[in-house]
Amino acid sequence: MKVFLFFLTLVTLTLPLGGWENTVAAEQVWDEELKRYLTPEESGHEEIYLTPDEAAKLMFPNSDLIKKEVLTITPQQKNQIQTLIGWNFNETSFDCFIGETQGKIDGWALIQNTIGKHKPMTYMVGINLQGEATNVEVLVYRESRGNEVRTKRFNYQYQGKNLHDPIRINRDIINISGATMSVRSMSAGVKRALVIVDQIYLKPLGHSSSNINTASRSEKSFLESFLGL
Asked: What is the pLDDT of residues 56-78, one digit of tens each?
């Protein structure tokens, strides 16, 4: 299995500015796959597809009401979630949208930010009352390649996934050539969203899954290495 690495190099540029010399630090990103530094256009690339509100409407097209809340998890909850997904993360709060119809919850949609090849991508994961992923929508993509992860022909694979599924490349997710890191990143985020909803929302309602498919020791080691943890 090939794992592509990238390196950051700081170079000093001297620019004239109104008769004065202004020294700035420019960041260069080395792409091991391309065997070159990314151009400024590539390293600064950002595609915005949806706002959070627009994505939430796609998650709950038939709901009467969509509410937003900031979900804050305790250190104990965070440790439990990390154990179940197999990798550590820094966040302690997540933006969550809740779809309701006639006062009853239809499901939850969490915004996830996970590192792709070089930069984080932002996407939303919808989950129903059965703890299944219903939809995945990319909000912001910051890589110069690999945005195929936002297409339905790819992300339909996550629909119906639950905590019993591995959600891993070459196991139940088909990879995209040239976008392996983004696929791994999205898969890790979908798994995290499923576990968060299960532990925070479904468990108090008595619907928590009792048999979560956790990462193996080798998978945990790889995921933590891949995610830079």
From this structure: 999 999 999 999 999 999 999 99
Q: Which long-range contacts (CB under 8 A, 24 or more apart) does 164-173 make?
A: 164/209, 164/211, 164/212, 164/213, 165/213, 166/213, 167/191, 167/194, 168/219
Beta bridge partners of 95: 70
Q: What is the pTM of this model?
A: 0.77
Alpha carbon distance 126, 111 (integer Å): 9
